[in-house]
DNA sequence: TCCTACCTTGGACATTGTCTAAGTCAAGAA
DNA sequence: TTCTTGACTTAGACAATGTCCAAGGTAGGA
């Protein structure tokens, strides 16, 4: 994750304790926290960090392309630090668990020109839904 | 849409004026209103209809499979009455316009077994993102 | 060390959705 | 037709999530 901090400094980020702990919380694979969860985990390390700062920092990380915003359920958005490897999401309909998955092929290629209605289409997000092994038991 | 009302009666629905206007508002193709928009349009015909009833009715229509809930932006959910023809959505990143689209192939088939992690996968939702002709101009 | 533009904070506010208690009414029964 | 009853609707309080602002704090260059 210090790679991330280096990239951020390179982009002119002022490196504050608050931004550091938010970046640390988002370190790891298969991380899909809500803003509130990020705030709670960040507050474990830096108790006085405010909600506004967590929202600001997450928004900046998304703008910079370092983190992806995922909303699979219409509730709170989740923040996925795995932004540098294309992937889609598999969500359990019961417990809400999210897995990163890699379908074959390029979903963008499956949308024919006559189905694009003149749009400049640039991305395709796929959400697979099902029931995870724990919830099926 | 009277087809819909008939199906609902067949399922034991009590047919009230409120439910009728909500169903009427959702009549048509390429309809993707938010709950608030449905409420405003319903109130044009039945001014005293309450927000709670609109939410209740939309929730019931979703449970019955007559309407699909779409959340493309993490903001308000949208309600899509085109539930009986499989389709995906194409969203303009600038103005938020939504089009129903029909990609070729079955997106579910593109998720290999070893990428399912033991889930019983039952659906795939694809959101294509781009810029519509009006916004590109 | 100092300066200043950028950052953080607490809290008010906005949006979207849920819940409840009390009153109303659709539709079957008589 | 009228009656009855349980399902439906209502207003408004409440909850969850996110945004904004003015005031004060601080990272990092000079």
UniProtKB/TrEMBL annotation, chains A, B:
<dbReference type="GO" id="GO:0000976">
    <property type="term" value="F:transcription cis-regulatory region binding"/>
</dbReference>
<dbReference type="InterPro" id="IPR036390">
    <property type="entry name" value="WH_DNA-bd_sf"/>
</dbReference>
<feature type="binding site">
    <location>
        <position position="92"/>
    </location>
    <ligand>
        <name>Zn(2+)</name>
    </ligand>
</feature>
<keyword id="KW-0678">Repressor</keyword>
<feature type="binding site">
    <location>
        <position position="95"/>
    </location>
    <ligand>
        <name>Zn(2+)</name>
    </ligand>
</feature>
<dbReference type="GO" id="GO:0045892">
    <property type="term" value="P:negative regulation of DNA-templated transcription"/>
</dbReference>
<feature type="binding site">
    <location>
        <position position="135"/>
    </location>
    <ligand>
        <name>Zn(2+)</name>
    </ligand>
</feature>
<dbReference type="InterPro" id="IPR043135">
    <property type="entry name" value="Fur_C"/>
</dbReference>
<comment type="similarity">
    <text>Belongs to the Fur family.</text>
</comment>
<dbReference type="GO" id="GO:1900376">
    <property type="term" value="P:regulation of secondary metabolite biosynthetic process"/>
</dbReference>
<keyword id="KW-0805">Transcription regulation</keyword>
<keyword id="KW-0479">Metal-binding</keyword>
<dbReference type="InterPro" id="IPR036388">
    <property type="entry name" value="WH-like_DNA-bd_sf"/>
</dbReference>
<protein>
    <submittedName>
        <fullName>Putative hydrogen peroxide sensitive repressor</fullName>
    </submittedName>
</protein>
<feature type="binding site">
    <location>
        <position position="132"/>
    </location>
    <ligand>
        <name>Zn(2+)</name>
    </ligand>
</feature>
<dbReference type="Pfam" id="PF01475">
    <property type="entry name" value="FUR"/>
</dbReference>
<dbReference type="GO" id="GO:0008270">
    <property type="term" value="F:zinc ion binding"/>
</dbReference>
<dbReference type="GO" id="GO:0003700">
    <property type="term" value="F:DNA-binding transcription factor activity"/>
</dbReference>
<keyword id="KW-0862">Zinc</keyword>
<dbReference type="InterPro" id="IPR002481">
    <property type="entry name" value="FUR"/>
</dbReference>
<keyword id="KW-0804">Transcription</keyword>
<keyword id="KW-0238">DNA-binding</keyword>
């Amino acid at each position: 994750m210090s790679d991330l901090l280096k990239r951020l400094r390179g982009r002119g980020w002022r490196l504050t304790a608050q931004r550091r702990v938010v970046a640390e919380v988002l370190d790891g694979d298969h991380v899909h926290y809500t803003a509130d969860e990020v705030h709670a985990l960040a507050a474990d390390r830096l108790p006085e960090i405010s909600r506004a700062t967590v929202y600001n920092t997450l928004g900046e990380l998304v703008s910079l392309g370092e983190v992806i915003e995922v909303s699979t359920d219409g509730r709170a958005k989740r923040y996925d630090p795995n932004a540098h490897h294309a992937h889609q999401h598999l969500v359990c309909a019961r417990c809400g668990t999210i897995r990163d998955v890699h379908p074959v092929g390029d979903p963008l290629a499956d949308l024919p020109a006559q189905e694009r209605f003149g749009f400049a289409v640039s991305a395709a997000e796929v959400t697979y839904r099902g029931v995870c092994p724990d919830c099926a038991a």
